[in-house]
Amino acid sequence: MGRIYIVVSLLALGACSSHSSGDDGGGDDGPVTLTAVIVEPATAQLALAATGPTAWSAAQTYSVTAKYSDGTLTDVTNSVTWTADDSAAVAFPAQDTATVTAAGHYNLTAYFDVGSGTATIDASLHADGFGPGFAQADKDKLDGAPTETGGTIAYPVAGSLFPVNVAPIEVHAHKSSSQTLARITFSSGSALSYNYYAPCTASPNPGSFADACIVSITGAFAQQLAGASETADISVTVRMAAADGTHLSESAPISVAWAKTPLTGGLYYWTTAGTGDTTFNTAIARYNFDGDTTTPSIYLASNDAPTVPSDTQCVGCHAVSPDGSKMSFSMGGSQPGFFTVYDVATKTPTMPLSTRKYASMSTFNPDGSRIVTGSYGKLTLRTANATGDVITDDLFATTVTESKTHALWSPSGSKLAFVSWVPTASDITNQKNTGDNVLGGQIWITNADATGPMDTPTLLVPRNAAYTSYYPAISDDDRFVVFNQSSCAGPANAAGSWGGGACDGYQDISAKLMLIPSDGGTPVALTNANGGDSPLSTNSWPRWSPDHGTFRGKRLYWVAFSSRRPYGLALTGSTNDTAKPQLWFAAVAVDANGAAPAADPSFAPVWLPNQDPNLSGPRGNHTPAWTSKVVQIQ
Questions:
Q1: What is the helix (H) or strand (E) element at residue 227, kind and residue range?
Q2: Intra-chain end-to-end CA distance of the chain, in Å
Q3: Is the pLDDT of residue 616 over 60?
Q4: By the 8 A CB rule, do 336 and 316 touch?
Q5: Mean pLDDT for the stretch of residues 26-46
Q6: Dist. CA 118–CA 116, nearest whole Å
């Protein structure tokens, strides 16, 4: 068997190296140069072996040879520098060794002098895992031939894409009354075959889901799923059986995937009290995705916020500066419109509680030094200091004469979007023209810098009598705007409720997520994220993650939003306004160059784990705001 060479282009072909072939190099042939770096083996197939309950590894040794223009070959294994396209899964403990800890396809590069050579590893995982409380002797009860049909998977949602750092991994399936044991199988071609055995756990709402079998898997396993998902989807099936092995059934498979791009930064959201919450009626909670957990914490409870005179002690309509340093929020509700700004680290106000009708919504520039506030149809540019000095009292007053609300400064500071609408006479009479209710909303956008808007705004999403458009958000790279659209055909919310109209832009039941390039174009419905063409689950208030990554060669973004859709077999959800909304997020993958998609680029959504300590009496979770980092509380 002859040698297999990988010959690659040199970083500086023809550059001199220190190699000597034994002559003076001064003849007519010129100096001796490096022509190739050869890595052996060029390809490797590795089977991962267990190194712990949820850890696997495999090693591959290499030799690296430098080839020169005079035909000589030199072993340079101990002189190369290695890199891999996934440093989380591939490490180099020695000059001649690569270790892999996750299934998947990996590209390796060895650098020497002015050249480089490459190799690939295909790692596979074929293993079993066992959950707490499962007797390994019961494994065979789930490995035989199924005797019954059934076991539909209710969660994950088919077609969803998970980030690698969301934990735990939960699978919900419908079972028969006698079934108590489960086997979850994750498979993907030759790369992955993993069986996880566990007892069935009941739903936190057994009255609604008496047939629920819920299995929770450690988040550490997501690294295996993300590695295998880079080339193909993961097929998930569920087997269930009675304690004695009878009534064995297997579900139909669903396809899902995991991305190596994690959730990052901090996600702040508004929450209303659930069963067992006694210290607040409303609060601002937050996730720290850069920390070691995906469990949120209460950042500011209403009882700890500044006291509002003669109004409900309610904190809400918050905004956080992209750098995570400052938070603003309204107090007492939209109509009173008290307002303050907090230093996030110290949890102290940098602006005292303001007078009535100061603002109901706001948005910061990147470093939190300036803010745009919105109140009763007027946007005001201010300094975000103790006095909130007015810089421009009525933004866009001469170019957009309608009432204005829902301002959103992009994370880069380069663009600003907002909504205009014409309040109804009834809304004005009842002081519902605060900016919450935007019947017939249309979306504008303008260029900006860190000091404020720079240009005349242009109409991005024009008005249409059939729907209203509102809640715009701009991606971290300024390429896209995600926004809400709801149908005026209904259905409407409960009669007499705040924002009870079918398309007034306040928790509308038909609300769905839409996408449009920030420089204009045709909006595209994010149908996969919405759960259908005409969802009735209040998919509201979308917000982009603070950065983006890649997935299968695509540019990958995450979008968080609130929704009343059911969460598997844990929460029922609703198609009206009776269920409390929960936080979800969905992946959006576009061409690598960021070109506008012609079709839906979204995936089915994922429920944010651990957002409710008591799912039998859940909180209502709304209005996410994403920051690039989480500032530690002092």
A1: helix 222-229
A2: 65
A3: yes
A4: no
A5: 88
A6: 7
